[in-house]
């Protein structure tokens, strides 16, 4: 066989086309392997790391990002839709109250989300007023009523109407000092304002204005309020929320703090009209239906339990009482007020064989005797509670304390006032007869009440008796164990209000649709609702047609008249 030369063989090998193709294919495969490895492994790791780093987006970037998102944003129920692009939401950690909000997450802390910081006010705003107690009322020596932590002198149980302990001759305007002394016993006080759910201002606003309502110029009446606001606004705590987490208490009706003009003849001071005060929450025994910065809390009664058993024993006693009167009324007529229905109520009581009347007038009267009043209420199924000189009366709480079902004639006497303390379903514990039924249609109260089935009366009375703990102020020198009194309910409501406000701020909610003139309606909304509409009680709260001011002139006039009638009954 003929052999090929070696040189020829080597030349043929290096020029083999199949070998060249194999080499190029291997090189190409290796290149694509490197390319894919770099894309999926190297770049993939870097992307995952970048996802862990907070990135700040410009508003335009956020807008495009939201447009690409498949999940629609959560709607703010009750608030207008935002059409224009909004700036990015602030990082939650930047809000100065976040530390306070996070305390609620600590389940091992019984005070988490409930801490209260109390301002250490100069004594001129509180204690100095008690030292000058004779100046607190033009007609009444308030010195005895400020004793026993504001409860007043003990009541002797001569007629067996009261319990042997826990009953005091408490003045109806003493809530300022009672509330402040109860706050001293609050179990979740803190000296660290940064963890506070709310901030309490122990200013005796009611005592302050009571000193100067008669015979003093407006400069004198406004002095302490202006001084207080100036003091508060200089404090670092104020700047956290501009005072919207602050609250104070005044044991008087709101009209004493809502002077409309700078006329010397106008009534009260302008505390609640001060810009700073509009941010705070003021707890008063009667609030304005047309304003958002005051909230109604109960008038003090004569009963101030020191322990839970004091309440339980009293409740059981009220359940077992025999009530011989269908209805009763304690009060005086208002002949100078053409809109008052008291005269007609008194006349119906006089004509009825199942009605009891305790007439009040100047001079000696059983209306000034807590024993006589409570004895009548304890013997009645229903207690009539028409308006006094203003919407509300202390008598409403005295009657419920006696287990008597209240009959109201105006929604502003209770239903729109004490929404923190009373059920929104007023039919559970009371009867409502519109004033016009008495004034214009001369409806028989006796016949209306007789139409209520006995079983329904029993359920309503039981509801009233069950409400007693949250309508009384416990003795500030002791502490209830399981029950929540009027103080506890009020403080928790303030905390809830501030907490919800803070959450709204974080989530960017606004109250653009809020109408302050309809404030009374918002308090009646169910949980989660934010918007109000027409209401069956609109006629009761219609503003004067001339549109003047924040409240009608009649409100200030009635406030002034309440002082004149202070010694006549329990208005």
Q: What does this 3D model show about the protein?
A:
This protein is α/β, with parallel strands linked by helices and 571 residues long. The protein contains 20 helices and 11 strands. Helix 12 links the parallel strand 7 and strand 8. The radius of gyration is 35 Å and the shape is globular. The N terminus and C terminus are likely disordered. It comes from Clitoria ternatea. GO terms for molecular function: glycosyltransferase activity. It holds the Pfam family Exostosin_GT47. It is found in: Golgi apparatus membrane.
Q: SSE layout and pairings?
A:
Layout: H1 6-14, H2 17-50, H3 59-68, H4 98-102, E1 116-118, H5 127-131, H6 175-183, E2 189-190, E3 198-200, H7 205-212, H8 218-233, H9 236-241, E4 246-253, H10 275-279, E5 281-286, E6 294-296, H11 308-320, E7 325-331, H12 342-351, E8 355-359, H13 370-378, E9 380-385, H14 395-401, E10 405-408, E11 431-432, H15 435-439, H16 445-450, H17 454-471, H18 486-507, H19 519-522, H20 553-564
Largest sheet: 6 strands, parallel
Low-confidence stretches: 1-15, 45-90, 545-552, 565-571
User: Outline, from the CA principal axes?
Assistant: globular
The residue-averaged pLDDT reads: 84
Distance between the termini: 139 Å
Can you list the strand order of the major beta sheet? 2-1-3-4-5-6
Number of helices: 20
How many E-type strands?
11
**Portion of residues in helices?**
25-40%
Proportion of residues in β-strands: 5-15%
Radius of gyration: 35 Å
What class would the helix/strand composition place it in? alpha/beta
Keywords: Glycosyltransferase, Golgi apparatus, Membrane, Signal-anchor, Transferase, Transmembrane, Transmembrane helix
Region (Disordered): 60-90, 533-571
Domain Exostosin GT47: 111-448
Membrane topology: Single-pass type II membrane protein
